[in-house]
Amino acid sequence: MVIRIGLTGGIAAGKSTVASRLRELGATIIDYDVLARQIVEPGGEALPRIVEAFGPSAVDAAGRLNRAWLAQRVFSGPDRQALERLDAIEHPLIYAKAQQADAEAASQDDTAVIVHDIPLLADVIDDVPFTFDHVVTVEAPQQVRIERMIRTRGMSGTQAKARIDSQSPQAARLAIADIVVDSDTDRASMLARVDRLYAQWSAQARHDA
Ligand SMILES: CC(C)(COP(=O)(O)OP(=O)(O)OC[C@H]1O[C@@H](n2cnc3c(N)ncnc32)[C@H](O)[C@@H]1O)[C@@H](O)C(=O)NCCC(=O)NCCS
Ligand SMILES: Nc1ncnc2c1ncn2[C@@H]1O[C@H](COP(=O)(O)OP(=O)(O)OP(=O)(O)O)[C@@H](O)[C@H]1O
């Protein structure tokens, strides 16, 4: 039986580090950020619909999505429904691609561990067309995440705090998760925890096959 995992986490908590480890161990990772970028590429299904909804300024002269312009419109502009309109265009297309990827992985291996890597899972859990066997959130205290963003992403403390505040609160992720991976321990301990989780999931997948 295929095991499906929903993976989320606070920004800069270590979700990508956990996803990479799971990939090395043999899991199939479906990265929703990657899918979201694919659908807005020139030729992607979302791009003409975004132009229709937001106007020609949504693309640059070369026909590529003007991410900075759109981010300003949906995250900071006066139109409070703009983000909902964008989500209504993008999310069904992202889910359709995820369903394709999931079905392909499941058809290749009926004991696959399929990890849906969804940064905003707490906001969309009721809409994603999957039932997860487990939901994992990767968490670290806010101050640790701010320090990581300053150190590795060249952000100021204020910028880092603003990014954290723009996400759903940690409580929303904890409410949907049955497994919390603490990334405020050293990397080796965190990865050892991930290894143990993967071993359990993959045994469960084979046992129930
Ligand atoms: C508006 C866009 C073009 C801005 O692109 P940009 O490169 O400036 O930002 P990026 O994609 O890196 O996102 C920055 C941060 O914004 C937040 N964010 C992104 N999309 C959303 C959203 N739909 N709702 C709430 N917050 C969001 C995230 O915390 C993210 O870390 C882009 O964010 C987008 O297409 N968003 C919608 C896609 C989406 O819903 N993705 C989530 C997958 S389920
Ligand atoms: N247990 C750990 N100990 C120390 N540093 C860690 C640990 N886990 C992750 N990191 C570091 O923290 C930073 C953020 O990790 P990562 O990129 O995996 O986060 P993320 O949650 O995927 O971030 P985002 O949500 O912004 O994509 C990276 O520099 C990573 O190397």
From TrEMBL:
It holds the Pfam family CoaE. Its main location: cytoplasm. Its EC number is 2.7.1.24. ATP binds at residues 12-17. Keywords: ATP-binding, Coenzyme A biosynthesis, Cytoplasm, Kinase, Nucleotide-binding, Transferase. GO terms for cellular component: cytoplasm. The keyword DNA repair does not apply. Catalyzes the phosphorylation of the 3'-hydroxyl group of dephosphocoenzyme A to form coenzyme A. Belongs to the CoaE family. This is Dephospho-CoA kinase. It comes from Bifidobacterium boum. The gene is coaE.
